[in-house]
Amino acid sequence: MMAVAGRMSGQPLGEEARPHIAALSDRENRVVIRCRPYATFATPPRHLHRNDQVEELTRWVSGVVGWDAANPATT
Question: pTM of the entire structure?
Fold first, then answer.
């Protein structure tokens, strides 16, 4: 929650803020959820120049790179 509060305030918080942040978290029943990404999905940008072009817009993923994939430059 210290990291979240620091991001929300725009600056890192000092250790003196820790008791206040802990009390605030408890009072608001907040939890921290940690997510571990498994892949990156790369999609080329697509733009609409007019609203009637929405039917022409394609939705596909151009590439998927696993986070545990070996770096080709180092293998």
Answer: 0.40
**Residue 1 corresponds to which tokens in the numbers above?**
């929650």
Residues 24-70: tens digit of each pLDDT? 888 998 887 888 877 777 666 667 777 777 777 666 656 676 777 66
Cβ–Cβ < 8 Å for 12, 6: yes
CA distances (Å), 68 to each of 34, 37, 40, 74, in order?
A: 18, 10, 11, 14
Amino acid identity for residue 23 in this structure: A
Query: Token pair for residue 36?
Result: 């571990």
Closest CA to 3 of 40, 38, 30: 30
Phi, psi (deg, nearest 5) at residue 57: -70, 125
